[in-house]
Amino acid sequence: MTRIFSGVKPTGHLTLGNYLGAVRQWAEVDQYRAESLFGVVDLHALTVEHDPGRVRRLSRQAATLLLASGIDPEQATVFVQSHVDEHARLSYLLECVATDGEMRRMIQYKEKSVRERARGGSVRLSLLTYPVLMAADILAYRADEVPVGEDQTQHVELTRDLAVRFNQRYGQTFVVPRATPPKVAARVMDLQDPTSKMGKSHDAGAGIVYLLDEPDVVRKKILRAVTDSGSEVVFDPEAKPGVSNLLEILAACRGGNPEALSGAYESYGALKSDTAEAVVELLRPVQERHKELMADPSYVEEVLRRGAERARGMAGPTVDGAYRAVGLLPPT
Ligand code: TYM
């Protein structure tokens, strides 16, 4: 059976980008067609300046939102990365296979290190090695597929390279995985700056729809989305990034494709109000279920406890095998 691994990092509140680019696909399709593991990858949240209490709160919230989105703990394994030691154990071995040049070529590293330095901060070494930990997340479970948004495909490519290199050097150990981004909304853009990704770690909130935004906040953000000085509704991400982003969001919510939908609109205003209502409707059940789950935190805790136990059982033998393969003496 196909195995899937994917994760969200608790660096901010989950966004519409996370939902359309990844989480919805996990909940609606992936968990039913494959053996699936979904992690709140909290170790990744420590790669930039962080507040310990906030990371803890966001980790709980992310886990609750995964369940609220419809991920069923009877179908899929939901867990917190730091509860399973195998991730960090394997990451070190993979650091011994990866090169620093490879790490420095990662687009997200380049962007984030520039941002950290511009803020006057220093760049944590873990930001550079982040993709190795991500590779460990995936390879520890011998996952075949990694459903992620487009921004993560370079990291999955690196994961493939590391798996192949390790297998060639030390013998067949890892499955070589592939990224499976969604067909529509693989890269949802910021509503105020439609040439950059809608990202939960960005500071500005006006261009980002959060999964837990109240309906009126969602409406306001979408109605105020930046478009362009034209008036024709056409899907053309290069020339009309704002309008194209709205069409993409609408298509993801209602089905269909953005080009076809563009024909149905004569004004930007009509497109915006339909998109706003479609997003409000999409988020409503997730928000309702989130409220119910918040009333019973012990349920979420129990799901995470069982998830971590199952995940450890799956990753343990693979990571032990990798330790032996590179020549480390087994403990006696
Ligand atoms: P993260 O937490 O930034 O995002 C979680 C998922 O949401 C997708 N995504 C988007 N998709 C479309 N449009 C957007 N604007 C958008 N923003 C985010 C991401 O592509 C991702 O699928 N490095 C990962 C977390 C991670 C991981 C892993 C993922 C760590 N280890 C192993 C898969 C497998 C990250 O930062 O995702």
UniProtKB/TrEMBL annotation:
Task: Specify whether Nucleotide-binding is a keyword of the entry.
Answer: yes
Q: What is its EC number?
A: 6.1.1.2
Instruction: Locate the residues binding ATP.
Output: K9, P10, T11, G17, N18, G149, E150, D151, V188, K197, M198, G199, K200, S201
Task: List the catalysed reactions.
Answer: tRNA(Trp) + L-tryptophan + ATP = L-tryptophyl-tRNA(Trp) + AMP + diphosphate + H(+)
Family note: Belongs to the class-I aminoacyl-tRNA synthetase family.
Q: What is this protein called?
A: Tryptophan--tRNA ligase
Record keywords: Aminoacyl-tRNA synthetase, ATP-binding, Cytoplasm, Ligase, Nucleotide-binding, Protein biosynthesis
Coordinates of motif 'KMSKS' region in the sequence?
197-201
The function of this protein is: Catalyzes the attachment of tryptophan to tRNA(Trp).
List, alphabetically, the Pfam families matched.
Answer: tRNA-synt_1b (PF00579)
- Which GO-annotated molecular functions does the record name? ATP binding; tryptophan-tRNA ligase activity
Q: Please report the organism this UniProt entry assigns to the protein.
A: Streptomyces alboniger
Q: NCBIfam families of this UniProt entry?
A: trpS (TIGR00233)
Subunit structure, as described in the record: Homodimer.
According to its UniProt record, where is this protein located? Cytoplasm
What are its GO biological-process terms? tryptophanyl-tRNA aminoacylation
Residues annotated for L-tryptophan binding in this entry: D137
Motif 'HIGH' region: which residue numbers? 10-18
The entry's cellular-component GO terms read:
cytosol
